[in-house]
Write a structure and sequence with these properties.
The protein has 312 residues and is mainly α. It contains 17 helices and no strands.
Length: 312
Amino acid sequence: MNDQLMCSQARIPMETSNRIIHQRVDQSADGWLLPVILIVLTLSSWSLMPAWGRMWLMAVSIFSCFKWWTWRHVKEDQIPFTARSFYYLFLWPGMDARSFLNPKPWKEPPTLTAWGVALAKTLFGAVLIWGVARFAGHGLLAGWIGMIGMIFLLHFGLFDVLSLFWRSQGIRAVPLMQCPIAAPTLSDFWGKRWNVGFRDLVFGLFFVQVARRFGANSATVLTFLFSGLIHELAITVPAGSGYGLPSLYFGLQGGALIIERSQVGVRMGLGKGWRGHAYTLAIVTLPVFALFPPVFVLHVMIPFFQAIKSIS
């Protein structure tokens, strides 16, 4: 993919990405009602589903719980339930409820170029899934091609199309992917560019509270480990094996981020220039097989791609 295709949204204002959202978990009984219902439904149907069904069920359940919590927080501040609340809950994957529900209109309509790039990324993902993957056999290579295709189809493609649609309607829906390949530092990658919706959620619900008690470095590591736990639920638990590897991946990210910010990291130039960019790419990509262990690819994703007729 060329720079235009990967970085088409780099000009989107970064106020939301630069802001840590101070959210609190609603403690009232009805605030916990939906999470409890989803947990019960997940556990009751667990044994009835294939591994890939368990993955999607767990991912959707976790996402729905967090989505509900973010909306509850804004609702407490007297923003009424309107059609836009419905759109936020069911038709937008981001987690910045305050921005999305803000009645102040977004005044920068998307360009035709932005629409074209978003649709091209969507098409590219679909080609990888239903075109290229089927020629790679039934092993790890086919699984990884399909998973990369899923990331392009959803995160870079359809989610970007949704962002453009809502902004064309005057709603502030900042793209979740802010050209992550261009990140000059590891801090920039995780803090501003990769899946900012999940970043907003985890930092708002977890990082701020931990940092106040134990300091920024401890909060950084614990926040990444918390992210690892969430990914364990959606990756290794459905696979039934590989436990601890996603947590290891995110623990490594947190430790590497502390090194980047340390005096040693500063002297080595890990926080700027080509060294920072190379350090970021290496730390994010080289251990990615721990995030998605082979057992997950072979026992969860390959059957899923077979189910959607991507791999015969």
